[in-house]
Design a protein that fits this description.
111 residues, mainly alpha, 58% helix, 6 helices
Length: 111
């Protein structure tokens, strides 16, 4: 398969059949509160037909190979939801930046 054909047929998150030098560590843990809220938010957006499952899936796949390997599952979800809401004009970048700053200050997190 040529590089071009591979690029067209494989999304960044499609790693099936590729070699891997590191073992995948599977661990169980409770979801963080923000992850639960993220999941609930996407469920509400889907229920109200604002962002559907297909849009969320497409959004996570369009993140790109660099970010796809670095972000957690719910980090990908929140980016996908944000991008959908921006594309639909429901939110604007200033609103997201303002809320992100507010939350980071509330929890004393450096961005």
């Amino acid at each position: 398969m040529s590089d071009t054909e591979y690029f067209i047929k494989h999304l960044p998150n499609d790693i099936g059949g590729t070699s891997c030098n590191d073992k995948i560590s599977i661990t169980e843990r409770a979801l963080y509160p923000w992850e639960k809220r993220c999941h609930a938010l996407l469920d509400v957006l889907d229920y109200h037909k604002i962002v559907n499952t297909e849009e969320k899936r497409r959004g996570t796949e369009n993140i790109g190979p660099d970010l796809a390997g670095k972000l957690t599952y719910y980090e990908k979800w929140i980016i996908a939801a944000s991008n959908c809401l921006l594309q639909k004009g429901i939110l604007n970048p200033d609103q997201i930046a303002h809320k992100t700053k507010e939350v980071s200050e509330r929890y004393n997190v450096k961005l």
